[in-house]
Design brief:
The complex is a heterodimer of chains A (about 300) and B (about 525). With about 300 residues, chain A is mainly α. Chain A contains 14 helices and no strands. In chain A, α5 runs parallel beside α13 and α12 runs antiparallel to α13. Chain B starts with a helix and ends with a strand. With about 525 residues, chain B is of the alpha+beta class. The chains are: A mainly alpha (about 300), B alpha+beta (about 525). Chains A and B meet through α2, α3, α7 and α12 of A and α1, α4, α6, α12 and β20 of B. Chain A: This is Nickel import system permease protein NikB.
Chain lengths: ~300, ~525
Amino acid sequence: MVKFVLEHILQLFLVVFSVATLTFLLVRFSPGDPATIMLKANDVPASDEAIYAMRSELGLTDSVGGQYIEWLQQVFTGQWGLSFVSQKPVISELFARLPATLELAFAGLGIMLLVTLVLGISTAVYENGVVDKIGRFLSLLGSAIPTFWLGFLCMYIFSVNFGWLPSMGRNDWKNLILPATTLGLGLGTVYARVLRAYMLEMLQQPFVKASRARGISKKRILVFQVLKHALLPIVTMVGTSFAFMMGGSIIVETIFSWPGLGQYVMESINMRDYPVIQGYVVFAGILFVTIHMIVDFIYLIIDPRLRVR
Amino acid sequence: MKKRYTGWTTWLFMAICILALVGCSAKEEEQTGKDGKEETKKTATLAFSWSPSGLDPHSSDSWEVMRTGAAETLVKLSEDLAPAPWLAKSWEQVDATTWLFHLQENVTFHNGKAMDATAVKNSLQRAIENNPGTNDLLKIKSMEAVSETELKIETMEINAALISNLADPGTIIVDVDSLDEKDGYPAFTGAYVIKQFNQDESLIVNRYEDYWGEKAKLDEVTIKFIIDGNTRLMALQSGDVDGATDISVDNIEVLERNNKFNVLTAMSVRTHMVMYNMESPKFKQLAVRKAVDSLIPRQEIVESVMKGQGTAAVGPFSPVLPFGQISETKEEEPIEQLMQQDGWTKNKEGMWEKDGKVFEATFLTFPQRPELTVMAEVIQSKLLDQGMKMNIRQVENIDEILVNEEWDLSMYSMLTAHTGSPDFFLEIFFKSDSSSNMNHFASQAVDAMIDELHQTTDIEKRNELAIQIQEEIGKEVPHSYIVYPNTVFAVNDELKGFEAFSIEYYYNHANVDKE
């Protein structure tokens, strides 16, 4: 267990260092000057003198090497610098938006799991039946419909047409329904097919045949024995999807004006707010490694064979 | 089989019931809320397209702060875009570089403190220290609070545009001490006081009861920050907001079909243009620039790309400005003659050719204003018909490319007189020693005229001079001005007084009302 934890901490350190370095380089060499963008934010003219003064104020006239060392120091001391735009600490800017992203990620994950389990199990139980065919059609639709289109479609039907749900914002739980559905529905329908395939594959296993021989019904075997085995790949997919959702879904948050990390990072990219972009990528890196660590840990709990190994 | 079918229909029926219940409860709550509000509070909700990172008026968020209706400047731009008194009730020029401002009496900040000359001085001092752009506009050397209501400002050089530039949102007057308070919001002087700021989400302002001018008609205004244009439209259609700014021209028709909504438009002070690199081998010669300029189908662009929401441009400044009304000069020489003047001849394929090379140029455009790329494509097609090949290159960072790379011509868009003054744009774009003169225009006569404009304070003379400068510049065709786009807002039929305005930072104001 100690080895498991130490290995993952080392992994985390390496990922943070590599991500911090790569992001710093990519951001510095990507086109766009933050000072020019900030001064011309409203499309008004700006003199070169003003742009230079702003660059100097933002610390962009220092050497790239000096900026890099300062950035690494900031990363490992947990400061992450000040946002060019708001002049507030990046870490507090990210944490201020985290609750909204968490809320959406959990709700999206809930809908995704619900769709995956209901559709996955039912299509496996009624293999090649009407339900299976509907499930196949839905998963095709789920993977084919772009998220932004699904979002606007939901908004048009449930907000504009029926007036049942608010179109945007984050006031109460009703505001969460449309963005969470948009986020979870597509993935859920696709994962349902994966779950179905695993469950049907498991049906060929000797322990299933033994259970059938004992007279246990197919439905009972599927739900109480096969599902447990098929959960392993689902846990991996859920872990990866959750990490993505926690990083903030840029498209869903922008469409529904959801004040989370995704929308914030999009604005920061537009404004070339270097400290925020760098801070966000490091934050996402830490998040991915941590979630994968948790997934690995869950594996150990679910699958006794791994514990033996 | 029958049993299975029944099971699924039951689930489906239950799901629909739950959704319907959610919908009904939402409606009911909304009605109850509305009824309650009608009895107690008069409120409205607006959707703005930009989200401020904070409420510091001297940062890059100054325009968003001004749009809330909570903040004011010393000078306001009137409907004809002339400088008018606001927090300064009058001003006088003491000498070439010194101005004396007489401030409004009985003005208080939202925290109750009196707005006196010292407070205004501190606010302006902070503005020029924090924002190099504001420093450039004002060129302030020193300030002195002569009395409680008199502020003397001395500029580093003669700055005739000072009065107009004091309308720039970067000069918002704020109680500087209130910005240091950890809890609470900046104390401004406007008709609304900030009640609640929800980052990336919304801003709620309440009527300021001790306002020095005409009090706000609404008790409360909620401003929602909705960046996506389609979401803004649907928020308006669904009734989540009463008014929305920056409606896409493609959506106007949808709103006009429904008599519940009104589309409001105003000609902006923005100009979409083509910029020629006057050092590029292709466009060094005036004749070629004139030929391309005469081929640009301005009216077609207004009708097709802008869907009629704009005006064909003749100069850098929109005709809503007094110095924007210049006469159109039509090129009388035929294209063939103009091209031949620079040694171009037409080859068998109908393309212009010189020294065995076909006329081919790089045409820059950028994604931040998608309509510019469409305009570039229209121009590209028109020029190809006349034997000139344009290769469109879309770049992310147009300003950097224009300064650091070789280019031939480029699409560009700018608010050319955002404070109602022509000085800043002319200085930055056309002065030969300006490091931001990206297309390398150089004219001693124009330099001298711009210098004269900076020193001319009489408004009529300034307007005349600005027109003369444009005519002088126009002779060299450094730019082709294409269109002055309209500002487009939309409101439901209950919202009154919320209007599109040429200046893009006056949105919410005391006269906005709801029936």
